[in-house]
Amino acid sequence: MANEVCFRNMDLDQPWLLEQYKSRGGYEVLTKILTEKMTQDEVIELVKESGLRGRGGAGFPAGLKWSFINRNSEASRYVVCNSDEGEPGTFKDRDILRYNPHQLIEGMIICGFAIDAAAGYNYIRGEFWEPYLRFEAALEEARAAGLLGEDILGSGFNYDVHVHLGAGAYVCGEESALLESIEGKKGQPRFKPPFPAHYGLYGGPTVINNTETLSSVPVLLKNGGDWFKGLGVENSAGTKLFAVSGAVKNPGVFEVPMGIPFSELLELAGGMKDGKKLKAVIPGGCSAPVIPADEIMELNMDYDSIAKAGSMLGSGAVVVIDDSVCMVKLLERMSYFYHEESCGQCTPCREGTGWLYRIVSRIERGEGRQEDLDLLTSVGKNIAGRTVCALGDAAVMPVNGMLKHFRDEFQYHIDNKKCLADS
Amino acid sequence: MGFKSEPMTTMTPLEDKNSLFTPEIRSQIDKWIGKYPAGWKQSAVMAALSIMQDENGGWLSREIMDDVAAYLDMPPIAVYEVATFYSMYELEPVGRHKVCVCTNISCMINGSDKIVDHLEGKLGVKLGQTTEDNRFTLKEVECLGACGGAPMMQIGKQYYENLAPEKVDEILDGLE
User: Complex ipTM, two decimals?
Assistant: First the structure.
């Protein structure tokens, strides 16, 4: 039961071509919706029933998000796809863009129909040049086939999808920063409420979903909500793309049912690299607190199981850490990342991420003081929950996770001015 | 509601936009403008800056940013804000090849430190510097979303994955 949804065409020779996508029933669901005159509410209800949750990190129910849109709004409505994949460890949406772009386009058209949108925008991070070209080529094919543009398939529905290319900013993965970026501004998150569903792109009601979420829609509509639910476990429907990287033999993206035991996922990735020993795992991208080896080996990969262990499934980016890695050095690199990527709008995050980085850095260099461990916790408390967006919280969570599970390594650095992992 | 989403405007819009850029560049930028709703041509500012950066050998001068502002009827400060916010825009001249090496966690676990050491040794520059012959600029970047191929780097628009020092040599030696 793998490769059922987003990767279901991976065995084809050139799955990114329209003709090949169609050979597997591609655009059949869209055709059915538009020609058999399914109502917009019926489509939204089906997505709701399927239990599909947002795959970008937050896990918000997708159908519910769509249902918030007021289709009678004066302002035009928009669909925005978030392909600004930047959470360290995450590399799944890149493969959807490269290998299955038509399924994403079909999902974006269906969403556009459901909320009666004027247009759709796919925000692709600027570094993804090759995936961008692939996606553009797919858009051209779809336009030529009458699947985008005026009067799609004779239904009277007018809708087009465009790419907006980013230019390097992690924070633009935050939905309201992403909207600002499309509007031609620096990507600083908006204060919420109003949420994008009420006041989004160009002031119109907007659905923003992750690439994997929108790509899942055509398949779950085709096979039904119960089928989709049946793939996963309770509260975590469907399959999920897990991007496994770090100290494994065969890193890569694996589409497997939600709730798969971590130990099986590790096996799929070829097990540990060079006979190394598993030390810990970051289960959902850099911002998800680390889980030690003995705990993760007993866990299943679904929203609830990972949450119970004090972490989060996030984007499904699984970073495998071996016992040669110094946790202080690893955290130093992560804290540098948040400091570098803080947009500077909110003082607690702009200043606090710098404090976190400098404190962890001096512990790493052997210049740490005993009070630094409490200071890290205290700085974290003054960031989390006090900022416009979640980047501040994301910077604090890995610090707290490391101090909870690997405090001894930090203590060793302070006491002995060197690394426990080396000794 | 306190927040309102409106395009920025300039007090002194330039009448004759044909004095800016070449016809080819104008048509490239216009293609991007066409993707966005009427009145929102400032949405094309990121694309316009990227196009002009490529055209100008990899970096943006103040004059270019001012021209982009004039073309899109934006105040120059709004364009500077964008150009200074996003990491892919360069505000100083760079070498012919911009070598962007990722050192974030998945790459770090797979030995990106060694790749950086090797690059610095081979090119004779530190991270953030340009070689004397202006062939290479070496830059440390954040996660580029190719962690399955760690360690990795990007040169120009191309990704290079599963790096080892010998492979880095081969790649760099193959460039002009």
Answer: 0.96
